[in-house]
């Protein structure tokens, strides 16, 4: 029958679609997966992500395999005669208990990682990150250093009147600079609406909420420039408040810190006075 | 109408033969469950196209990096309105419409228990959506803070703000009335012998859904009222500057929002549990466990809300509790999937359009379930939260999940409702184009999210270009193939091959004992339940 043949070919196409897409993705040099990141925690998160992913893949192959086997063999056009069984307490118990065990197997490593992520003790440097519409402020607590960080992509690129640069929308005027190999505590808060501070290579994001101070930490192992974006809708320029973290060796960091402190001398209040800082800085809006 | 002198005498004998009144007033004054069901379903179809058009604006802008078509503020209005229209205007009314048509016919009741309230609960909807959609033409435009209405951002909304709040209140009132009606009908109007554990799964899932609606819609109403007073009456429920707490809004909102997710999927489970046995020609496997699994999912939906908020900075114990509770949902959901597959196992399947949609539902909803399980892992969620991975996840459960189940239901029961067979060939085309389209649309969004693309942005970094292009192509393919569906539905309403009463060889249930189309009033005397 025409319909049956149509169905069969269609079903094959449906089953193949995700795999074709995987193939297409692998050929191009695109981000397909979560980055492993540059901290011990980000690698743990990546491993957890891959663990659950593969568990899901195995279950999917089993479940869909049974289903498609049934679809191909138990069809009326092949003369199948329907069985009439319709319950079994035993199998219901089995497919309740087995998934429970698998879930426990997932929950154990997830709990371990989470506990680690929540332990921000013994940090050697604390940076307060404040979200504004639509820029970030970084204050190095007790260091007398604080500055705003604003998107540096020219408007012409966004409006398509100039060719887009390599780091289109992921570049800022003043990156947050941190030393490698040191545990850095990051306090997030916001001054107007809720934002979220996210650098994928660090393995986490944390909301920046007015009236709250959230605590996180990171210990970057490799010098480099790591880019991220605000992840919580915060108004019209939500897509235009990127984050750039520059991780440098400790000596270089100390040098940078001294420079910044020297620059800040004339106005020691800046770091702790949010309002005055906002007035000084002219943020780019569209 | 017979002559005046005889009308009274014969009214009782011929009562069920009366057709509907003619003209527009039929639809305005109707208290007939079939008419109101039709109104709900057509309204839902209209909103599906309105919300879909907004989605196409979003996808068109995201075809390439840079700003091409809309400005960022209008983009945010589109994402906000798309969600509100699709959730409250398309998916929920479609399920209520199906309940209206089907619940009385499935339990052997003459109509809904509260027919006048039924009329009211429908007719609130067009007003609510006129109000909501009119905000797009107000100075400052529509709401742009996301459908989740998070303060403080939502308080920056311009003139649209009170309109949106009032529209949400009206939708909520409509939903609550609809839910009360469904509960009253199911608990009071079942034909003698139709015990609870003999009810069709669609009726069961709707009974549970209706309780969820009554439990959480008032919570939504409360939360948006607090937003209203924060904005206009000087309160500080959610304003940190006045001693309030912006995170409290999220807790209250998601206490509504998570059961809401199940309000949009439990009736879908019911539909699929009706369709698969029909086309496998085999009774549903594990009926009782299906009922218990549905009830378990409903219960769990009340204790998992904060998994939407893993990144707000909850204490460790809170994170762990919501992570474990969320993972538990996989168990009853798994039971449902296993039962559906066992129902197919050793059946004698045919693959008409409703069955195709049901099978696609099982596969694609399960994929959405897998990504849901991944999202349940709090440490991994710190990476997934607010990215396109989440967008892909909930669209997989809502589009090839909820929406496919509604389409399956439409094809499955249209012959019963209209008395005409739909065009099978067109139905199959619609199915394949939709299924391929929806995967091209949403599958690449998993990759985008994992690679670091946040959601709700009008413009993106260059490494996200290819998958966004692919996604947009899929969106237009999916969107335009829905025109085939609308065409097929209209064509079936207007004519077509005569449908038999039973319609499907394997169909089972009271609705299939009625004529196709059923009389305007059915089961005026209760049927015998074997």
Keywords:
heterodimer; A: 286 residues; alpha+beta; Helix Hairpins; Immunoglobulin-like; 2 domains; 5-stranded mixed β-sheet; 40% helix; elongated; disordered N terminus; B: 530 residues; mainly alpha; Cytochrome C Oxidase, Chain A; 17 helices; 68% helix; Cytochrome c oxidase subunit 2 (chain A); EC 7.1.1.9 (chain A)
Number of DSSP helical runs of chain A: 6
* Helical content band of chain B: 55-70%
Residue windows where pLDDT falls under 50 for at least 5 positions of chain A: 1-29, 268-286
Give the integer mean of the pLDDT values of chain A.
Answer: 85
Sheet bearing the most strands of chain A, described? 5 strands, mixed
Structural class call of chain B reads mainly alpha
CATH superfamily of the largest domain in chain A: Cupredoxins -  blue copper proteins
The global form of chain A is elongated
Question: Which series of helices and strands of chain A comes N to C?
Answer: HHHEEEHEEEEEEEHH
CATH architecture of chain B: Up-down Bundle
Number of strands of chain A: 10
How many domains in all of chain A? 2
Range of helix content of chain A: 40-55%
Backbone CA Rg of chain A: 26 Å
> CATH fold name of chain B, please?
Cytochrome C Oxidase, Chain A
GO molecular function (chain B): cytochrome-c oxidase activity; heme binding; metal ion binding; oxidoreductase activity
Family (chain B): Belongs to the heme-copper respiratory oxidase family.
Keywords (chain B): Cell membrane, Copper, Electron transport, Heme, Iron, Membrane, Metal-binding, Oxidoreductase, Respiratory chain, Translocase, Transmembrane, Transmembrane helix, Transport
GO biological process, one term (chain B): respiratory electron transport chain
């Amino acid at each position: 029958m025409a319909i049956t043949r149509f169905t069969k070919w269609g079903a094959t196409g449906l089953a193949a679609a995700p795999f074709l897409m995987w193939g297409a993705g692998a050929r191009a040099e695109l981000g397909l997966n979560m980055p492993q990141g540059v901290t011990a925690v980000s690698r743990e998160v990546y491993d957890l992500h891959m663990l659950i992913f593969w568990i899901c893949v195995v279950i999917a192959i089993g479940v869909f395999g049974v289903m498609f086997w049934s679809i191909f063999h138990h069809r009326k056009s092949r003369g199948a005669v329907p069985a009439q069984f319709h319950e079994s307490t035993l199998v219901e118990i089995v497919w309740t208990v087995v998934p429970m065990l698998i879930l426990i197997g997932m929950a154990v490593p997830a709990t371990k990682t989470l506990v680690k992520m929540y332990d921000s003790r013994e940090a050697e440097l604390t940076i307060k990150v404040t979200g504004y519409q639509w820029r970030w402020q970084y204050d190095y607590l007790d260091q007398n250093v604080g500055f705003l960080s604003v998107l540096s992509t020219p408007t012409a690129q966004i409006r398509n009147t100039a060719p887009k640069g390599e780091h289109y929308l992921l570049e800022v005027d003043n990156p947050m600079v941190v030393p490698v190999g040191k545990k850095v505590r990051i306090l997030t808060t916001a001054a107007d609406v809720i934002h979220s501070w996210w650098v994928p290579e660090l393995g986490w994001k944390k909301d920046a909420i007015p009236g709250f101070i959230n605590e996180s930490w990171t210990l970057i192992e490799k010098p480099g420039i790591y880019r991220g974006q605000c992840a919580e809708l915060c108004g019209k320029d939500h897509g235009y408040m990127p984050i750039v973290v520059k991780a440098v060796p400790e000596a270089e960091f100390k040098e940078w810190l001294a420079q910044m402190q020297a620059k800040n001398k004339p106005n020691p209040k800046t770091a702790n006075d949010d309002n005055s800082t906002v007035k000084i800085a002219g943020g780019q809006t569209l | 109408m017979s002559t005046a002198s005889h009308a009274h005498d014969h009214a009782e004998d011929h009562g069920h033969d009366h057709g509907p009144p003619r003209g527009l007033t039929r639809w305005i004054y109707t208290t007939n469950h079939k008419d109101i069901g039709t109104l709900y379903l057509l309204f839902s179809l209209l909103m599906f196209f309105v919300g879909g058009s907004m989605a196409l604006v979003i996808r068109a802008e995201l075809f390439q990096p840079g700003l091409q078509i809309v400005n960022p503020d209008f983009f945010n209005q589109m994402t906000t309105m798309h969600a509100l229209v699709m959730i409250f205007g398309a998916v929920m009314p479609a399920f209520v419409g199906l309940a209206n048509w089907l619940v009385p016919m499935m339990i052997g009741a003459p109509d809904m228990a509260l027919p006048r309230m039924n009329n009211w609960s429908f007719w609130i909807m067009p007003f609510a959506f006129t109000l909501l959609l009119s905000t797009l033409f107000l100075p400052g435009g529509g709401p742009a803070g996301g459908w989740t209405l998070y303060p403080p951002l939502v308080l920056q909304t311009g003139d649209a703000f009170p309109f949106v709040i009032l529209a949400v209140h009206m939708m909520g009132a409509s939903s609550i009335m609809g839910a009360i009606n469904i509960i009253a009908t199911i608990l009071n109007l079942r034909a003698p012998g139709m015990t609870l554990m003999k009810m069709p799964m669609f009726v069961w899932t709707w009974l549970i859904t209706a309780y969820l609606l009554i439990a959480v819609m008032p919570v939504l109403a409360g939360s948006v009222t607090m937003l209203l007073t924060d904005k206009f009456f000087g309160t500080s429920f959610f304003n940190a500057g006045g001693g309030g707490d912006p995170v409290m809004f999220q807790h209250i909102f998601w206490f509504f929002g998570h059961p809401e997710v199940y309000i949009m999927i439990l009736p879908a489970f019911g539909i699929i549990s009706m369709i698969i046995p029909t086309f496998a020609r085999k009774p549903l496997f594990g009926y009782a466990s299906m009922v218990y699994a549905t009830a378990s999912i409903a219960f769990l939906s009340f204790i998992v809300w904060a998994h939407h908020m893993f990144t707000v900075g909850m204490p460790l114990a809170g994170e762990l509790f919501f992570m474990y509770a969320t993972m538990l949902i996989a168990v009853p959901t798994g039971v449902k999937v296993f039962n559906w597959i066992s129902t197919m196992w050793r059946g004698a399947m045919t693959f008409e359009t409703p069955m195709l949609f049901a099978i696609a539902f099982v596969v694609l909803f399960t994929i959405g379930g897998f990504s849901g399980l991944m999202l349940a892992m709090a440490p991994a969620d710190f990476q997934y939260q607010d990215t396109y991975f989440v967008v892909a996840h909930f669209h997989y459960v809502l589009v090839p999940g909820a929406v496919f189940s509604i389409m399956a239901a439409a094809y499955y029961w249209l012959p019963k409702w209209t008395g005409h067979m739909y065009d099978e060939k067109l139905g199959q085309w619609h199915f394949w184009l939709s299924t391929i389209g929806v995967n091209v649309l949403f599958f690449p969004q998993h990759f985008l999210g994992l690679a670091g693309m946040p959601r709700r942005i009008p413009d993106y970094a260059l490494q996200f270009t290819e998958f966004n292009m692919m996604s947009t192509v899929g969106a237009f393919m999916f969107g335009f193939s829905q025109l085939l569906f609308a065409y097929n539905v209209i064509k079936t309403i207007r004519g077509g091959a005569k449908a038999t009463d039973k319609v499907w060889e394997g169909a089972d249930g009271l609705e299939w004992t009625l004529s196709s189309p059923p009389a305007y009033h059915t089961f005026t005397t209760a049927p015998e339940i074997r």
